[in-house]
Amino acid sequence: MWTLTGALSAVATLGGVVVWQNTYELREEKVSLRHDGKLLDGVLARPQRGEGPFGLVVFVHGDGPVDATQETFYRPLWESFARAGYASLSFSKPGVGGSEGDWLDQSMTDRADEALAAVAWARKRPDIDGRRIGLWGASQAGWVLPEAAAREPGLQFVIAVSPAVNWLRQGRYNLLAELERDGATAQEKEAALRRRETTLDLLKSGASFAEYRTAVGDVGDMTPGRWAFIARNHRSDATADLRAMRGTPLLLVLAGHDVHVDVADTEAVYREVLPAESLTVARYPDAAHSLVDHDLERSDWRLTATAVFAPRRLYTDRFLADQARFVRQLDTGREAP
């Protein structure tokens, strides 16, 4: 009986820790936006205290079927922005959660339209300061943020986390980096590059998914919808849009262990195209592409335990605090860190 009592007490204690660690200093409100004839389901997360008007960070997702909270992992970021006096706004991608449509039907321009629709929606709210709205986006958002900012010069800032510049260069880098990480032989790398060239030739010729399947055989996790999405977007390059958004303050966040994005290429292009006074570069040498600590990401049990018991610690050291500091210092007129 005493053993059972002790076990139940331990479970109750652990349960309390989980609840405490997953409780954030936020006021979350379910919101919706009708855009392009479809209803998008989202969350507005405001600071826990005060009535505003608050500054606002509009979230732009990376690749995949992402819901408004990124399966709760946006909340540590929302909390960090809330402590700097900013609300956060995020909508589930079309076809995810309560949002209508299909995200695989979108181009990067469609995604920029959606981000700007969220900005316009937010500017109608009395608790949001329309002069203090910026965009935060990760990974694939690297092709969305510059276009949106080029079209909306009134944005206060952009935060680009692990963005690539050119879709095709990024794909080649990602392929080789993952092969290298997995210990592939020279012959395996050559075969993968040949397959890639075949795929690119098919994309350039406008081939159907059936033609792609016939040409390569095993298509892996490729689907007709995914093939159409890649065909629609594989020519994406952010350089011209970056040049067009020259005056918008931008925080470029780069990870030291990024197998998805060539961070050296990204930084070189951003520094070449953007004025030095508008660009802040933050490097996190111990981080993976997701800005989770690299060593933590490589251990499944540690990653799971941290996600459950200490989700704020998923992100690499300084990342959350630096995000908040960037927007706070824009408000005070000082240079960003």
Structural descriptors:
2 domains, alpha/beta
What does this entry look like structurally?
With 337 residues, the chain is an alpha/beta fold. It has two domains: 24-166 and 236-332, Alpha/Beta hydrolase fold, catalytic domain (Rossmann fold); 169-232, no CATH class. The chain contains 13 helices and eight strands. The chain has an eight-stranded mixed β-sheet with strand order 1-2-4-3-5-6-7-8, with helices on both faces. The chain is globular. The N and C termini lie far apart (57 Å). The mean pLDDT is 92.
The CATH superfamily of the largest domain is known as Alpha/Beta hydrolase fold, catalytic domain
Lateral strand order in the biggest sheet? 1-2-4-3-5-6-7-8
Order of helices and strands: HEEEHEHEHEHHHHHEHEHHH
Q: How many β strands by DSSP? A: 8
Poorly predicted ranges:
none
Number of domains: 2
Radius of gyration: 21 Å
Helix/strand-derived class? alpha/beta
What's the SSE blueprint?
Layout: H1 2-21, E1 26-35, E2 38-47, E3 54-60, H2 75-83, E4 86-91, H3 108-123, E5 128-138, H4 145-151, E6 157-161, H5 167-181, H6 186-204, H7 209-216, H8 224-233, H9 239-244, E7 250-257, H10 263-273, E8 279-288, H11 294-297, H12 300-309, H13 319-332
In short:
This protein has helices spanning 2-21, 75-83, 108-123, 145-151, 167-181, 186-204, 209-216, 224-233, 239-244, 263-273, 294-297, 300-309, 319-332, and strands at residues 26-35, 38-47, 54-60, 86-91, 128-138, 157-161, 250-257, 279-288.
